[in-house]
Amino acid sequence: MKKTAGIHHITAIVGHPQENADFYAGVLGLRLVKKTVNFDDPGTYHLYFGNEAGDPGTIMTFFNWAGAYPGKIGDGQVGVTAFAIPKGSFSFWEDRLQSFHIPFTIKKRFNERYLSFSDPHGLQLELVERENVPANSWSFSGITPKEAINGFAVATLLSSNPEETAGLLMEMGFKQIGKEDDMIRFQSEASIGNQIDLKFTPTGRGSMGVGVVHHIAFRAIDDYDQQEWSKLLRQKGFHVTPVQDRNYFNSIYFQEPGEILFEIATDPPGFAVDESLKTMGSSLMLPPQYEQFRDRLNSALIPFTVRERRGNE
C-alpha cells in the first residue's frame, strides 16, 4: 500500500495524574510536553510525555482515570512498550530502578537485553540499548542526555488474528526482519519508533481499563499523506473515522484485523503550536471549543505537579 515511517505515539489508560507524572517524569526522566484534556472526554486529562521537543516516535500519552477499574492486558492491545536508551546506559537504569524499589527482570530477545518492569498502574514497559538513534537532549531528575530515554524502540502487539495483523503491517511498509520463538519482528524506515514485535501465541482477550494501552498511532507525513491512507484503507474494507483535529496532529482511526485500535497521525504541526518549545507542558492547554469551560475544568481536574525524584525515598 504505502509506507509509514513508524510509530507516532502510544496512548494508555492510567490512574492518578500525580503518580503518572512522578513515574514518567520523576523516575524515567521524560518531559511533559503537553498538559491538556481528552478532546472526546474533557473531564479527563490527556498528558503527553516524550523527548525535549516531543518528536514523533518518542511520545507516550495517557488518559488519567483516577480510581477507575483495572483493565486486562491481552489480545487486541499493545502488550509491552519498549523504550530505547543510549548504548552504555543499561547499568545506570538497573541502578536507578533499584533505587526506586521498582522490581524488574532482564530478558533476552533478538540478541538484545531488555530491562522489563511495570509502571505504578500496571503498564508493561521495557528499556533496551540502541545505537544510531536521535539523542534526547532533555535533562531532568538526575538523568542527563547520556542516559535519557531516546523514544520508542519496540511495541509488542497482541493480536487476536496475528496472520492478518502481520499482513497489514507489511502493507503499511514494515519489513519482517526476524523470528524468534513465537515472536516476529518488523521494522520501518524511521530512526526511532521503528520496530514492532508481533506475538503469534494467543494470550486471551484483553479488556480496557487502567493499566492497558488504548491505541497505537503510526506516522503520516502530512494531511495529504493521511488522506491517501484513509482512501487506501477504505478501499481495503476498513472502517476509517473522519479526520479528528487533535491540535498537535490530525488523526484517523480504524480497528485492524486483530482487534487492535490503530491510529494514523500527522507529524505536523507538533506541540509548540500553542506554547513555546521552552514552556511546553507548563500550563493547561485547551482546544478552542473548551476554552470557555476553563474555570470549570480547572476545578474538576485533579491538580498535580511535575517534580524531580530521588531514589531510595
Please give a structural write-up.
It contains 5 helices and 16 strands. The chain is an alpha+beta fold and 313 residues long. It has a single domain, classed as 2,3-Dihydroxybiphenyl 1,2-Dioxygenase, domain 1. The strands form 2 sheets. It has an 8-stranded mixed β-sheet with strand order 2-3-4-1-13-16-15-14. The protein has an 8-stranded mixed β-sheet with strand order 6-7-8-5-9-12-11-10, with helices on one face. The protein is globular.
Q: Mind sketching the topology for me?
A:
Blueprint: E1 7-14, H1 17-27, E2 31-38, E3 41-50, E4 59-64, E5 77-86, H2 90-99, E6 105-109, E7 112-118, E8 124-130, E9 151-158, H3 162-171, E10 175-180, E11 183-187, E12 195-199, E13 212-220, H4 223-235, E14 244-245, E15 250-255, E16 261-266, H5 294-300
Parallel strand pairs: 1-4, 5-8, 9-12, 13-16
Antiparallel strand pairs: 1-13, 2-3, 3-4, 5-9, 6-7, 7-8, 10-11, 11-12, 14-15, 15-16
Entry summary:
With 313 residues, this protein is α+β, with helices and mostly antiparallel strands. It has five helices and 16 strands.
